[in-house]
């Protein structure tokens, strides 16, 4: 019988692509598979569901237009192989890519564009005019307000609060709202607060509980309140003392 690989050997074998957060290639859904809609769900007649989409009990899809819907946005579109878990609400006029996964009680409003292989956790709210790239993971209890941009492969931990309004309740809020921009493969730890307009650089790591008040350089490690850079991801070592670094070097082509 062949010997099983050691944990260290296994870790060494992980490719750079996997280390930066790329999931294994997803199996393509059967193009002829019908959508499965629970009789206890409400799906508007014009909603476009891809092959193999599952809509569980008590979901509402395309039922609400929203105050900020684009006049020519068209119906809600949900890509093949996606799963909407019970009590998910998706407003009309949002486009969602293939293999999307929602947790329970997730709310996704109008005029959003969401890529392929995205997951949005339970009790998370995604407001209108949000752009989410491919392979983004948003955990539970998050607030993602309008005009937020989350680029490909970013990872958002639980209970992250993103903000977009520097002066709440001012007479003309629409004139000064500015969204947060989260770069490719950035990682945002639990309970982080991102203030309006900040830009998080690609592959940056924001430590749990940080309050980010200004732009973050690519690959920076940020902790504290207010958040301050302490190092880069190149300086990090494995806390379990395995023979690898948590992330590929910043010079890697990822």
Low-confidence stretches: 1-21
The CATH topology annotation of the largest domain reads as: UDP N-Acetylglucosamine Acyltransferase, domain 1
Give the count of helical stretches: 2
CATH architecture of the largest domain: 3 Solenoid
Mind explaining what this structure looks like?
A hairpin with a 4-residue loop joins β27 (220-223) and β28 (228-232). The chain is globular and about 50 Å long. The chain has helices at 7-13, 16-19; strands at residues 36-37, 42-43, 48-49, 54-55, 60-61, 77-78, 83-84, 89-90, 95-96, 101-102, 107-108, 113-114, 119-120, 125-126, 131-132, 137-138, 143-144, 149-150, 155-156, 161-162, 181-182, 187-188, 193-194, 199-200, 205-206, 211-212, 220-223, 228-232. The protein folds into two domains: 28-129, Hexapeptide repeat proteins (UDP N-Acetylglucosamine Acyltransferase, domain 1); 133-254, 3 Solenoid (UDP N-Acetylglucosamine Acyltransferase, domain 1), CATH 2.160.10. The strands form five sheets. Strands 3-6-9-12-15-18-21-24 form an eight-stranded parallel β-sheet, with no helix packed on it. An eight-stranded mixed β-sheet has the order 10-13-16-19-22-25-27-28, with no helix packed on it. It is built from two helices and 28 strands. It is mainly beta and 254 residues long. Helices cover 4% and strands 24% of the residues.
């Amino acid at each position: 019988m062949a010997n099983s690989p050691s944990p260290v050997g296994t870790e060494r074998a992980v490719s750079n692509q996997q280390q930066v957060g790329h999931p294994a290639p997803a199996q393509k859904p059967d193009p002829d598979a019908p959508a499965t809609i629970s009789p206890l769900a409400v799906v508007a007649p014009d909603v476009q569901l891809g092959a193999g989409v599952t809509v569980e009990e008590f979901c509402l899809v395309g039922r609400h237009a929203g105050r900020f819907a684009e006049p020519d946005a068209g119906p809600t579109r949900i890509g093949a192989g996606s799963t909407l878990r019970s009590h998910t609400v998706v407003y009309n006029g949002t486009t969602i890519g293939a293999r999307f996964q929602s947790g329970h009680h997730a709310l996704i409003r109008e005029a959003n564009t969401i890529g392929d292989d995205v997951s949005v956790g339970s009790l998370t709210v995604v407001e209108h005019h949000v752009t989410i790239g491919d392979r983004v993971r948003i955990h539970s209890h998050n607030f993602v307000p309008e005009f937020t941009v989350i680029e490909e492969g970013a990872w958002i931990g639980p209970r992250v609060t993103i903000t977009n309004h520097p002066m709440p309740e001012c007479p003309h809020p629409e004139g000064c709202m500015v969204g947060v921009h989260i770069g490719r493969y950035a990682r945002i730890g639990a309970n982080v607060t991102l203030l309006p307009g900040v830009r998080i650089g690609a592959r940056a790591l924001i430590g749990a509980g940080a309050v980010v008040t200004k732009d973050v350089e690519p690959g920076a490690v940020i902790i504290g309140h207010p958040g301050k850079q302490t190092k880069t991801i190149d300086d990090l070592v494995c806390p379990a003392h395995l023979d690898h670094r948590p992330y590929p070097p910043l010079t890697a082509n990822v």
